[in-house]
UniProtKB/TrEMBL annotation:
Domain of life of the organism encoding this protein: Bacteria
Originating organism: Flavobacterium fluvii
Listed name of the protein: Uncharacterized protein
InterPro entries assigned: HATPase_C_sf
Amino acid sequence: MKKLYSNKNNKEYQKRRFLKIERKNRKKNKLHTQEKKRRRRSLKMINEYHKNKHKYEFPLFAPKDFRLMENTEVCLNFFREIRSYENINNIGGQKKVLISLIDVEEIDYATISALTAISDDLKSRKIGMQGDFPKNAKCKEYIIESGFLSHMVDGSNRQFPKFSKSKFIFFEKGSGKLTKKDSKNISELIKDVVEHLTGTRRNIKSIKSILLEICGNSIEHAKTKDRQWLLGVKFMDGKVSFTVTDVGKGILETLFINNAQIMANLATFTSRLNILKGAFNQKYGSSTQEENRNKGLPAIKNNSDMGAIKNLIVLTNNVILHFGDDNKSSTFSSGTSRFKGTMYQWELTEECITNTINYYGEN
């Protein structure tokens, strides 16, 4: 070995070899140093943000009157801003929408349902939501009670602490067709609802069928990435409030209307409100053109008419339809925000259960 290394040619070879290894290690160390510096800069920026987060303003402030069913157009404008790509921020390598609820003085259950559905849709696209509490103590308590905080992180990019599960508000989620698991969960939910209203825990299949009909229509008209839907239930004294929400295209955008009908509508200046009413009267077909499609909308209206459900409200695209009070129904002005998707809201009472059993039977 010593003889080989003492040879002139071998010496030159070893020298070139060592220089090559040294250059390679130097380059490797340089890249490693650059990466360390880059990480330090990123960490410094993140720490600077957290240290001075009180100086940063949230770009999207929720309105003071944050009641979707009362202050509809203003709330829809806020929802449009949340879903706009222009308001997606890149914080610490993560995509986030920054919102502030600090000014909120009034909020309703429909708003919580819509925010939850929008948050789930953003999450499916790997976009988080960062926000804060309202100053108003009552609104703050309501948001905590709803469980919505589990969908957000705070100003320091930390998850809000988990609060005990609400005894009054529940959400059931799904995507695509209703699975056996979804059906089982809804059966248990119906038992809870019936027990709350009547004092007796039992599963009334006809009530479950009404709920599945509305969920099924939400899935049909969703057209979201995973056809996501969200069922919300709020227990109150003497009644239970339901919402079914999707944030897809909405009923009006998925209706199929042939050319003759379009011409007739244009000739008579038919409003989109009347077109939606027509859909619930089975005047139009759905975009799928399947024989059994869209029969659910007239069935939903029939259940409202015969008292199986109360105070039914449908919000979709640029129309809000109040089945209980047509004077509150309206088409939003051209150029204003619209609800990208569909929300059904209705109430169930002990009287509704009696009407349902009398009309359909218990099974």
